[in-house]
C-alpha cells in the first residue's frame, strides 16, 4: 500500500466496531439482572448522580419504586421536561455503573418523578490501564506488604490482579482501612520483588464468607503521594483592578474597530511583509534537520532572557504571534530585553523539515513522533543560548495544549542547563486522557497496550499514524498519568500551569495530580475563567498578559505587570506573516459539503442541530426576527434546513410564512428538501435557492430590492469573503422596517464543552428522539468525523479563510450598513460561544 492510499484510508475509515467492543466498558442487558441491581440500590437507599447544573449543583436521585417499565424517583436539581433524557451514575459494591433513561413525568410537590426503565446498565471502568489477573504468568507478584504510617499498621496481602499503577488485594487487618489512606507497598515476590511503591486506598470492603478479611483497591505510584497543590482560582484573568480592566477593554474595542475598518469594511489594504520586519531564522536539530522560526524581540538581545514557544497540535508558528507580541511589550514596558522564538516542528505543518514524500498539505503529521517534538524543543533552546547574535542567558518554555506532553519531557532532559522556567497554558496533563477526550471516547493508549492496531486516524483535524506515535510514546514512557507524575516529580525549575475553568477537554484534578508531584515550592496552578481556545480574543489577550508576567517573574526574579501590545499594529503584522507564506489550497466547497452532510453522507451538521444548545440559539434568533403572518423570510446560509425545521415545532408561529432556503451547497439544500418534505409542515411555503455569497453577481441576481420582510444569517457571516457586502445586499433586499438577525461564533470560540455536552445528549437518547432510530447506529463514527470538521473550521479561520467576530465587531458592521434598533445577545452553550445581533431597516429607508 502506498503512503497516499494510507492517507485516503485514514480519511475514509474510522475505528471499527470490534475495536470499540474491546476498548469500551462492558454492559448488562439482561432485564432481570438490571432489575436486581436497581432493587439493591432502592433497598439500600443509594444515591444516583447526574450531571452538574450551571450553578455547579450535582443532580441527585434515589429510587422510590420499580415498576414493570418505569422507575419512580425522588430527585434534586433534575429539571428535565417529559421526553428528555436523564443520565445517572451510581456505585454498588465497589463497582461503578451508569445508564440513560427518559423522563416520563415531572415531580409535582412531593410526588416522585417517573423515568423509563433502563434497557442497559453500563459498567464504568475507571482505571487508566486494565489490570492483569493472577494467571498472567509466573513473574506476577503474588504477595505484598502494606504499611500505613498514619494508623501504625502493617500486614501482608495476597494479590488478585495488578498493573503498574494499581493493585487489587486481600488482607486481614485488625486496624481500620479507609478510602484515602496513604500506604507504602513492598513487593515480596515476582518480577517486582524488593521494589517499593506508594499507594492510596480507593476501595475497601469486606469479603463475603471470610470474616475479618478485606478487599482493597489501591492506586499505586512510583512517586510519593502528597497533599494536593493549592489551586489559585481567579474570577478575573489578570487580577487587574476595575480601572485597569476598563482601560484594556477600551484599547481592545478601539483596535477591533480599526481592524474592521481596515480589513472587513474595505477601507484599507494589508501592508507588505517587508514593512512588518519579520525576522525568520533557521537552525538545525541533532539530526541535522532544518527548523524554521520567527523571532520577536525588544532591547539588546545578547545575554538577555529568551522565550521558546513550540507549536500546539496541528498549529504553526504564526498562530501565537499575539502571545509573542504581548511578552515583548511586557518586557519593553518593564525596561528589560527579551527574544521570543516561535518555531514550526519537524514532521509537522509549517516550514520545518518534513519526511520525504510527506510534504503535501494534510500528510505532514503522518511521520510525527513525540521523540521529534522533544528534540525540537531542546534544539530550539540550545539555538537561543548558543547563537552568537542572541547568546541568551536563560530560556523560559511556554507550551500550549498538547505541547505540554513533549514540553514536560524536554524540561526534564534539559535539567536546567538552558530552560530555567516553564509555563504550561491549558496544558494536557497526560497523553491518555487528552487523546480519549478529543477522539470521542476512544482510548488509543489502552488500545496500544492491548496491541490493537489503529493505523492512520484523524485527530482534531490532523491525519496521523496513531500506531507510530503510540509506539514512540510507549517507548518513552510518556503516555499515562503516572508517567506525567514521575517526570514532574523530577523537575526542579519553576513551573506555572494555567488552566481554563471552562475548558472541557481537560480534567483539572489530573492537572492537579501532576503538579502535586515532587517539590512544589516553585510551582503555581492558576485557574482562569476561559475555555481552551486562546488565540486572538479579549480573553486570550488577558491570558497572554498573565503568561508574560509569569515569564518575567521566572526570568527576572521580580514581579512585572503584563502589557497589551498595539493591537492595530498586531493585526497588520498578522496579515503580513500570512502573506509571506504560500496560499494554502483549500477546497472550501468540498469542506462545506462534508460539514453539512457528513463525510460518508450519513450525519453531518444535524448532530450539532440536534443539541439543546443549538435549539436555544435558534429559538433566540426566531424571536429576534419578529415574524408576522404572511411574512417572506430569507434563510441565508440555510445548510440543511435547521431554521424551518425548528420553526415547524413553534406552536404559536404566524401563519402563511414563505421561506427561501439559500445556500451554495446544492447537496445541503437537497437534504433540507428531503427532511422538510418528510415533516409535511403546514403553513410554511418553502423555496430552495442556490447562491454563492462570495459572488457579487449571484448576490445581485438572488436578492432583489424590497423582497423580504426578514432575513436570518445564522452562523454564516464569519465564512463569507466580504461580510459588509453581504449585509449591504440583505439591507437592500429588505422592505422598510424589515428585520435582520445575524449570529456568529465568537473569536476563539471554544467547542470543548459544546461538543462533550452535545455528545452526552445524543448518546443518552436525543439522537433517537431528534434524528430517528437509525441515527444511533451511525452516531459514534459520525461524531468523530464532525469533531474533526469542527477543528477544520478553526484551522481555516487561522489561515484567514474564515473570521470569527466578537459582539462589538458585528455591531460595527451592522451599524455601518444602516440598520438601527440593534440588540445584542449571547447564546449557544454555557458559557455562550455565539453572539446574536437583531436589528431592523429604518421604516423611512428606501
Question: What report would you give on this structure?
Answer:
The protein is an alpha/beta fold and 846 residues long. The protein is 34% helix and 26% strand. The protein contains 24 helices and 33 strands. It is globular and about 90 Å long. The model is unreliable at 1-13 and 257-275 (pLDDT under 50).
Summarize the entry for a quick read.
This protein has 846 residues and is α/β, with parallel strands linked by helices.
List the main descriptive attributes of the protein structure presented here.
846 residues, alpha/beta, 9-stranded mixed β-sheet, 24 helices, 33 strands, 34% helix, disordered N terminus
Number of H- or I-type helical stretches: 24
How would the global form be characterised? globular
Report the portion of residues in β strands. Answer: 25-35%
Widest sheet: strand ordering: 16-26-25-22-21-19-20-18-17
Helix percentage range: 25-40%
Radius of gyration: 29 Å
SSE class: alpha/beta
The largest sheet is: 9 strands, mixed
Low-confidence stretches: 1-13, 257-275
On the 0 to 100 scale, the average pLDDT is 84
Beta-strand segment tally = 33
Question: Any chance you could write out the topology, listing elements then pairs?
Answer:
Elements: H1 3-12, H2 17-23, E1 27-28, H3 31-43, E2 48-52, E3 58-66, E4 70-76, E5 85-92, E6 95-105, E7 113-116, E8 121-124, E9 132-133, E10 143-148, E11 153-163, E12 166-172, E13 182-187, E14 196-206, E15 213-221, E16 231-233, H4 242-264, E17 279-284, E18 290-298, E19 305-309, H5 321-333, E20 338-344, H6 370-386, E21 394-400, H7 403-414, E22 419-425, H8 431-438, H9 444-449, E23 456-459, E24 462-465, H10 466-476, H11 481-489, E25 495-500, H12 508-515, E26 523-528, H13 538-556, H14 567-579, H15 588-597, H16 606-609, H17 612-625, E27 632-636, H18 642-647, E28 657-663, H19 666-679, E29 684-690, H20 696-702, E30 708-713, H21 723-733, E31 734-745, H22 751-771, H23 775-798, H24 807-817, E32 820-827, E33 834-840
Parallel strand pairs: 16-26, 19-20, 19-21, 21-22, 22-25, 25-26, 27-28, 27-30, 28-29, 30-31
Antiparallel strand pairs: 1-8, 2-3, 3-4, 4-7, 5-6, 6-7, 6-8, 9-11, 10-11, 10-13, 11-12, 12-15, 13-14, 14-15, 17-18, 18-20, 23-24, 31-33, 32-33
Helix pairs in contact: 4-24, 5-13, 6-7, 11-12, 22-23
